[in-house]
Amino acid sequence: MTIRNTLQDHGQRYRPRMASLKKSEKVLLEMQDPKTGLKSQPQRLVITTIPHAITGEDIIAWLADRFQVNTQEARSFGSMLVAFGYIYPLQDHKRLVIKPDASLYRFQTPYFWPTQLLPVEDTDYAIYLAKRNIRKKGILEMHEQEHYNRLHKWMNHKWDFIVMQAKEQYRAAKERKKPDRVVFDCQERAYWVVHRPPPGTVSAMDYGLDRQIDPNSDEAATPDFYERIMIFTQQSIMRPRVKSSVSIGALVKYCATYNNHDPFLSNCLPSNPWITDDVTFWTLNMPCVEIPTKMRVERWTFSFAELLSDTRGRDDFRLFLKKEFSGENLAFWEACEDLKWGKAASIKEKAEHIYKTFLARGAPRWINIDGKTMEVTVKGLKHPHRYVLDPAQTHIYMLMKKDSYGRYQKSPVFKDTVKKAICPDEHRFSGPQLEQNYKKRRPSLSPIILRQMEQEQRAKMAANIDITQLCRFTTPVPHLAVYSGFTDYPTATASPSLTFLAHTPACPSPISVGLDSTSVSERRVEEAEGDGNPAARAPVGGNVSRSRMALSLRRLLKGGCTPATMFASLSPKCHSAAGTSSRIQPIGPDQPSQAPPRRIGNFFQIKVDIPPECRIYPIESEDEEEESRAAFRGGVGAKEIICPWESLTTHNGTG
Amino acid sequence: MSSRWRRSVGELALRGRQRGECERAQEALGRVTSCFQQLAVSLGSSADGSFLRDEMDETRHLAQRICRGLSRRLLRLLSDCGPAPSGVEDRQVSERLWVLFLSALEHFLSDLRQAHDLIGRFPLRQRNDRRSLVNTGCMDGVVAVAARVASVQAPWLTMEEEQSPDLTNHIAELEAMLSEMQLRVPVAFWSVEATQLAGAERGGLEGLQEGEDSLEELMEGEGGSRRPAFCCLTCV
């Protein structure tokens, strides 16, 4: 059994938060019992004496006795109570730990207890800082000063209120007797150490996002409540089971494997940014970094999922597949992911795209899946939804995992990457340096910018897509016309593998294959590339009426090709010089000499209406684009690979 | 013509008086709410008792009366500020008062909710409940605070005597007041600016002549050494 879903857990499991708060409060109240609770002593200060101080060792002893645990655990428990703010230290107030000696602590008043119910307000913090400022010798520390400045900026509209309230609170506090005043000041200070921790420390109350409901509150026993319990238990019953020996074994194996890679369990090189505020670790491990770190590369060998989920790893794998000429598998997998996680509105288009690119007979990047899966998939594509391609995707995934992954790990590409991978040295920071790091903290790139960068990256990759990547198993029925349409969608939205044929380099024309002159093709390629994005549309009207014969002759003379033609011609089954035309001619009334369209299979038809004598015509790319656009528009009589889910009625008549 | 001029002068004077009234009431409200907070801090601690809770109720009622009056007057001030003679500056002053009052109201509401929660947790109905009060080191001291509350004067307090709700209803009433005010008058919060610069309050409070020691120095009495300003890495 393998541990899955370690990275992207999209499940909505209810996670109770801070149940420890309620339990801690119970313990704290127990400590107050005059007979069985903690014994307190008075704290002697210069000016006065304050009761109810407790020593650290007393707390630990009491906890150990109460819960029957050893001293170490009692100490951790005690430190937790201090970290939450239920008990605060009287000396060394910024370090929220329990010291097992005679250092003094005091209980926090319930007003200042941590609670999830009422959030900690910035207004209160601003008032507190203003009060500190008012005291004659009140000096705000560096981080407090920063907070103060920030709050002054963002709460400017109520700043007068804040200052006024601070003054009033100060005056009100002065009304109390001296010892009580000292106690109150200590309490307030302790409260803010917990909730606005000094740099280098983390607040124990930092528990992540707030839930909509308080997990500690009691829920009313409504019918809805019971219904949810029923649904939950029904689903629990349906869950597949695993023996605990197996699952525990899997957990142990997972921990052993990933132990060295966890930034908190073991040393993180060069330094752990969460602790030292130095972001080198993150910069070195960015998604699109040139040279990955050794640890990262090692993680790729753990499992195929690890390799794919890491962007850099995936890039490496893509490079390897490119060299092996089986890039279409990864491209298909990525396209399926894009479909699964994309917008609902685009599902239909994407599904069509994928079908035409990867699944249809004669598709340019045809993937090899078994017949049954293909049948199921094509059937499902009639009514495409997010998970329609799951069986095919799984099949391809397992194919890559079992076959390509192993070879990848032995390949020179991978070995080269391993050799080049860097291993940074550990960097220890001194105290002042840590302060510097804290001050130099900056927010990371905004997600909007990251997304734009991602899209630019994808567009760049799409522009460089290389259809010398022949699929090994190219179209099995070469004499059929294949629609190698151009994508009309902006390249940014589709994953790079989907944008296929618009800018294709080197494809020798069928004629040149015969004549073996690649120079012509190269010239063609340059012309083809010069055309740029097919997004610019030429008017449809004029093309259709052009005489087909004249057109094909002209093309013949110019010499050019389309990738599909190349595929077809290079396929083992096609030996005839009569290569396949990739052009699907719009059938018009002025074309008497057409072959009747052929019906292949029950599900889809590919209409072939090429006059036999015009089989070979390398096509001038501009015309090609216009033609394709015309055909794509589905004008009268336009033919294309008809996906099974499209209606056949409009094309039947002209067939 | 001249009567109109005279009328507008009269209006201006009236509005100025009303604003002054509101400002004084705002200060009074601040005093009362900060005293309330001092009292609420002792809830659930060893200093808690029926005296404390009674004083809290009194303070609460006083605050409520001030809030009611202030909200009424502010609404009046800002809703019929339409005609031009008041001028932009007067409007700004009124808006500032509005924003300050709403902030004070929100702040007081959060204190009330906290107090409500604490009173629920430490009901003090029986003698045994006193055993579970937290020994915080505070013994007493709310008498002077209560006196301070009693000394608060607001312009309309003597005039209006209305019923005093219990805590839950009080919170509900204030919430309703807050939302009503926000709906009735559209005031852009961000247009109000602070009259003081950051840090202007530093050391500027009167009555501070008695050498106020900082808390660190006070706590030093035990012989605990001063730790450096930046602290160590570990927390828990």
From TrEMBL, chain A:
Its membrane topology is listed as: Peripheral membrane protein
Which is a GO BP term held by this UniProt record? Answer: visual perception
Residue limits of the RGS domain? Answer: 303-418
Region (Disordered) residue ranges read: 518-543, 578-598
Q: Which SMART domains match?
A: DEP, G_gamma, GGL, RGS
> Localized where?
Membrane
List where this protein forms a coiled coil: none
Q: Name one GO cellular component term.
A: plasma membrane
- The answer to whether keyword Secreted applies is no
* Annotated ranges, domain DEP: 34-109
Q: Which UniProt keywords apply?
A: Membrane, Sensory transduction, Signal transduction inhibitor, Vision
One Pfam family in the UniProt entry: DEP
Give a GO molecular function annotation for the protein. GTPase activator activity
Q: What is this protein called?
A: Regulator of G-protein signaling 9
Q: Tell me which species this is from.
A: Champsocephalus gunnari
UniProtKB/TrEMBL annotation, chain B:
Note the InterPro entries from the entry. RGS7BP/RGS9BP
Name of protein:
Regulator of G-protein signaling 9-binding protein-like
Tell me the GO BP annotations in alphabetical order.
negative regulation of signal transduction
- Identify the keywords attached in UniProt to this record, alphabetized: Signal transduction inhibitor
Please state which protein family the record places this protein in.
Belongs to the RGS7BP/RGS9BP family.
